[in-house]
Amino acid sequence: MTYADIARLPFILPSSSHGLRELLEREAASHSISLDSVIEVDSYGNIKGLVEAGVGYLILPFNAIVQEVNNGQLQAWNIAKPGLKRAVHLVRPADRPITKAVLSVEALCHEILLDLAGSGKWNSARPI
To answer: How far apart are CA 10 and CA 36, in angstroms?
Structure first.
């Protein structure tokens, strides 16, 4: 499906202050389309429940719905054009010392993220 195709669907979207909503609205605006929000809900669990009840559609990362898709509760399609992307950042305060413990935690986070992306457990992740 393309982003233009899905713009005609009724969506259950997070509120405007939610990071995912900002990404979706920015992408829609860049293609001169708007998303039809029938209701705004910030909880992924509540959004999934409303979709399962037939209230509307959702756009979430696949890893947020993989269990429901595998159980046959929800059906998923990829948005092919454009593919949506979000970055994950590991951030630490600039005014704190870099200790061995901090470096160990950073290395562990990096290792876990690479493992999740490489193993397919985080389906949409692509290490760079």
So the answer is: 5
